[in-house]
Design brief:
ten-stranded mixed sheet, about 325 residues, Udp-n-acetylmuramoylalanyl-d-glutamate--2,6- Diaminopimelate Ligase, Chain: A, domain 1, 2 domains, alpha/beta
Amino acid sequence: MVTLPSASLLGALAARHGGVVDAGAEALTVAALAPVATAVDGQLTPLLSRRRAYVEAARATAAAVLVDAELASLVPAGRRWVHAHAGFVLAELLRSAAPPPPPDARAAAHVDPGASVDPTASVGPGAVILAGARIGPGTRIEPNAVIYGGSVIGARVLVGAGAVVGRPGFGWTAAPDGDGVVRVPQLGGVRIEDDAEIGPLATVDAGTLGPTVIGRGAKLDAHVHVGHNAEVGAGVMVAAQAGFAGSVIIGAGALVGGQAGVADHVHVGAGARLAGKAGVIGDVEAGAAVAGYPAVARERWLRAAAHALHESDPEQRRRRRST
């Protein structure tokens, strides 16, 4: 449960944020936000998914329900606040109740004198910012993150706790005498553009000749890895544990599911969608949706998975033998 800064009438919230409240529900008082499974009278609960358990709980709750317009018909009228952008409204309400960000603690961090950190940036305790790094205004570096020299981080960026930005990438070449390999220096650095987010324990490797790039407004979840020379476009959303090998290009607005992997030098077009655990070893067209390994069109993968499940059913095998 999250307590709102002040109790409000549901009608007043709708007047402030838009949307339509059921007739008679305008006078409902809302003092807190709560999950649909536990919400009670006097609270507001969101319904943003059509999963059966959520819908059934929303139908039974005594709380007011902030429901996405596409799902409104699944919930009986009477306590609904219907909004075409219910997820955005939920974010706004949570933002109003969130505590302020932690104060700057760069005195408890290691900031090399050769680094440039904007006075309005916030640095968490234990963070390490090495010589040659540049941190822009309003950016927040969380505790124990490490920013290597050659990293240029723009404005209002969030670098999560324990993330590592700008470490030399994984580049090796064979020695002429065939005796082992030698490291290829990665001197191109990293450029993270304004309003991007690097999740906790994520890693962004430095490029070889030019920077590895995280585009404006891109969001990387926890444990994401971005290899050297990669380019993650503006507005890309990447779920946890996904990984991009060296020189990958992810087009603007693409969506990448958790634990998806993209092979080196692959180009994923703008607006493409990579399903969770997809293994992408070839280029993906703009706007396409792929799944599986090797990744293919999502519909094709679903048909193949259904066929494999059918073939593995002992009863189905028995029926085939009997015919």
